[in-house]
Amino acid sequence: MADITIYHNPQCGTSRNTLALIRNSGAEPEVIEYLKHPPGRETLQQLIAAMNVPVRDVMRQKGTPYAELGLDNLALTDDQLLDAMLAHPILMNRPIVVTPLGTRLCRPSEAVLDILPAPQQGAFTKEDGERVINEKGERVAGA
């Protein structure tokens, strides 16, 4: 079993960059394509609890049915928001990464660096050309 799990959407650049940063540390994570294999209620609740964030903070608005489902209604309960994410997995923001050091929504992708158990093994540049890790495996200032 992998020590690192990523809830991943291969169509998302942030998710792809996060996965690449994990691999740049020498780890091969368990990759869960959550749109094909969405987490159940209990797992989703555990992830949110481990991140110590409100349920609403794990919801993606852009490119989802968030607005049409009226999920911007602040009167909705956490259970109602969870129900929506379970019915429409695209509403789950990504990528969520679980490591022995913590669980985090990795937006931006370099947020994963704070919870990776092993250092980066070489240079890394994000898909958009932003340099994040130098040749010595060190985080570039501002990244």
From TrEMBL:
<protein>
    <recommendedName>
        <fullName>Arsenate reductase</fullName>
        <ecNumber>1.20.4.1</ecNumber>
    </recommendedName>
</protein>
<dbReference type="GO" id="GO:0046685">
    <property type="term" value="P:response to arsenic-containing substance"/>
</dbReference>
<dbReference type="InterPro" id="IPR006659">
    <property type="entry name" value="Arsenate_reductase"/>
</dbReference>
<dbReference type="InterPro" id="IPR006660">
    <property type="entry name" value="Arsenate_reductase-like"/>
</dbReference>
<keyword id="KW-0560">Oxidoreductase</keyword>
<dbReference type="Pfam" id="PF03960">
    <property type="entry name" value="ArsC"/>
</dbReference>
<keyword id="KW-0059">Arsenical resistance</keyword>
<comment type="similarity">
    <text>Belongs to the ArsC family.</text>
</comment>
<dbReference type="GO" id="GO:0008794">
    <property type="term" value="F:arsenate reductase (glutaredoxin) activity"/>
</dbReference>
<dbReference type="InterPro" id="IPR036249">
    <property type="entry name" value="Thioredoxin-like_sf"/>
</dbReference>
